[in-house]
Amino acid sequence: MTATPIPHLAGSGWIVARDPRLRVGAALAFALITVGLDHPGSTAAALGLALGLALAAGLKTRDLARRLLALEGFMLILVLTLPFTTPGASWFELGSLSASTAGRDLALMILLKANAVVLALMALVGTLEPVALGQALGRLGVPDKLTHLLLMTIRQIHLIHAEFVRLRQAMRARAFVPRTDRHTWRAYGWLMGMLLVRSLARAERLMDAMRCRGFRGRLYRLDTPHWQPGDTLAALGLMTLLGALAWLDHGLGLPGV
């Protein structure tokens, strides 16, 4: 059985049992508030809250580290370059280059905010199955066309991945060994071409099958989510924590603080 190319994070905490609509809305609210923070203290508190959400979602440390690895690589480049490209008071000098304190502070804020938002998204949204995410977006008022596009894209990515695996197995069965020569690049070119052609054919067959089943441009949601008392308590708790973050950021910005 071929694994889906868009796996969701396996969670086991109380967040996983919450309503998908609550989790999507909470992730959006957390991201908006965190991006608007202006002080390192409140931003560090947001990162701590995101870590708490990840722990409450039951995410494994290995999964978190693997997902954050790509982000941290980009953040490393940002942290190393921003102090030297942002004007301001000198922090230290490296030969003819001068690093500014303003660039250092900006790099720190971006690093904290990015990690906080990504951790919160992994805890709240990353533990949702793609189909459940699409249905939650539809119930939150996202236009049907965008929801359909998301669900169809997820399905098509899975089909392309499965087709790629079959073609690669066929190449191995014919004793293909990749090398740095013209034959290898030609073979990979044919692989990409056949992948696109077969994916288009699969998409057309999928559309024909949907029309045979009465598809008229709308996917009917068969899920019947029920808002539980635990969802209300979780929503109130998250609203309180997010409000505390905004209050802390405002307090740190007052004169004399």
TrEMBL record:
Q: What biological-process GO terms show up in the record?
A: cobalt ion transport
Which keywords annotate this record? Cell membrane, Membrane, Transmembrane, Transmembrane helix
Q: Which InterPro entries does this chain map to?
A: ABC/ECF_trnsptr_transmembrane, ECF_CbiQ, ECF_transporter_component
Provide the topology term for how it sits in the membrane: Multi-pass membrane protein
GO CC annotation: what is one?
ATP-binding cassette (ABC) transporter complex
From the record, give the transmembrane residue ranges: 43-61, 68-86, 106-125
> Where is this protein found?
Cell membrane
What PANTHER family is this protein classified in?
A: SLL0384 PROTEIN
The family assignment reads: Belongs to the CbiQ family.
Q: Any idea what this protein is called?
A: Cobalt ECF transporter T component CbiQ
User: Organism, per UniProt?
Assistant: Allochromatium humboldtianum
